[in-house]
Amino acid sequence: MSAARDAVETAELVRTGALAARDAVAAALERIARLDRNLGAFVHVDADGALDRAAAIDAKVARGEDPGPLAGVPLAVKELHAVAGWPYAMGSVLHADRVADHTSTIVARAVAAGAVPVGLTASPEFGRASFTASVLHGVTRNPHAPELTPGGSSGGSAAAVASGMVPIGTGTDGAGSLRIPASYCGLVGFKGTYGRVPRGPRHRGTAENDHYGVLTRTVRDTARFLDCVCGTDEYDRASLPAPPVPFETALDREDLRGLRVAWSPDLGGAPCDPEVAAVVGDAAKAFIAGTGAREVPAGVRLESCGAAFRTLSVPDVHAELRNAPADRLGSVHPTVRRYGDAAQALDADALVDAHEARARLVEVLAEAFGRFDLLLTPATQAPAFAAEGPMPTEIAGRPVDHWGALAVTFPFNLSGHPAVSVPAGWAGGAPTGLQIVGRRHEDARVLAAAAAFERLRPWPAA
């Protein structure tokens, strides 16, 4: 939607001195001031701090030093990620006055690589919705169709990147919160193998389904960002080592010819809007034909894991609510409040049942990935809905609950598989995405597949 430069292009120009980081950041700040009044992507902007950081990068370049692979790239930070000295409300009135006293590893490593954080982007309260609206910040809108949602919970970052305000924005994905906004906004949203992007410090994550990542307009931007932030972190016991071959390098090395690729519009039973299924199905066929892959039957039927996911997630939300002032609890979003109520009734049997359901899911997917190398599905089952919500209660004529509307995304949070959404086309007045899922730890293959599809179907479509 914008002629704004992508992250890799910006960084290379800044590193060579062809573009001043201060000019790149000033241009981003101008776009934010001009565009965000109608979108509500940002909840905090630190213009002075960003310009000062950019000036320091320019001074490095002038001294002949390399400021890093993300040099001068304006970065939006989802408000669930802490930046020391910035507000840290996490979309909740419970923390409306809180200021962060630490910086999340994902942000600190991006800054060390030369990125310039310009502000915080909106999230629904504690990230617990697939549209981005909160009592604290109001409604965030889709740049392609302002009456529609950009998705959630990383909707603020998605709106900021899709509108061209910034080239890159951090996000989280606990049930699809990177892939859903990517689908609805025509972006790349990659959820790596569990632990791929470190989540320290102070991330609770007792459900072990939260993944950190980034929203970009190109796969190469995503790969470069990952190369800058991945690697073990003593603050995150689940964090994984960086891969031996950088993700950006692997984009051009992976050979997809002959790979066994399966297409499933529904993972064996989830409802999918017919328009979405047709658009994404066509994209899946184009991917298979264009890469020289070999289509094989999916043969996947996942049992409903919504109750298990909710049970495992309850303690994380309870941790935010248990010490909350009583006079503020009434303003908490009903979805969040229901988690709090569920915490009071949680018992050992429910936890055991949830862990057993997760184990069965992992077993089913392990067997499935013995039959194929990549799994293609829609990234969202329904077109983008109203910006104010609520989430769909019916898809393709079938009633769905909260988890039924996320049936193609959250299972891979429970299982920890890498998955990416890439733009597939349009449905219902907004973009819709193709989801590519791979085996755990085969993140490079998933990204290479996304890059191959990007070459086959450049976005935005001509």
TrEMBL record:
GO MF terms held by the record: catalytic activity
Organism encoding this protein: Actinomadura montaniterrae
Designated name of the protein: Amidase
Family: Belongs to the amidase family.
Signal peptide: none
InterPro entries membership: Amidase, Amidase_CS, Amidase_dom, AS_sf
Name of a matching Pfam family: Amidase
All residue ranges annotated as the Amidase domain in the record: 23-447
